[in-house]
Amino acid sequence: MFERFTKDARAVVDGAMQHAERAGAPALDAEHLLLAVLDREGSRASFALAALGLADRKDSVARAVTESRRRAGLSRAEADALAGLGIDVLEIVSRIEEAHGVGAMSGDHADQGGRTFGRRSFSRSAKHVLERAVRQAVARRDRHVGDEHLLLALTVLPGVPAEVLADHGVTHESLTRVLGAGENGGGGGRETAKAG
Known about the structure:
By secondary structure, this protein is an all-alpha fold. It is built from eleven helices and two strands; from the N terminus they run αβαααααβααααα. It is about 60% helix and about 0% strand.
């Protein structure tokens, strides 16, 4: 699958693996892909995020992702649905963290001294993002899968990354609009945006 990925897209996957390893996560998740996209500079995705006003708010996105991992990866919509059933997710998280430490529900083991050896596998959510990124490239008639396709996939699939990005003003529609404007501007945004 990765033979169609550009250098920037491969760098996102490598960066996501590093995020997962630093966190001690047993698998690479969609959230790790989002964090790795945020790390990129000088790529189509980074220029699109800057155009949407996210350049100065990347830390806020990363904090929101971290908070969702503390809730065992539940999105705010899922936590709200459980609240409708009388289940207070924040109270559960608080009690579990009292007994087992902060981040105990994240599935990450860095703070608990757990070890995961070797390369991490891709979680179901990460596989869905990679598959959707390929579909995004095909739908846009692009020969290769770039980091912008990974970002598009993160905005369209339900879950924490899409919710966090939307909360910060990055939706599939706004991203498509910005990426389309870059293509119509001649030069695709890479060289021209870097020089300015």
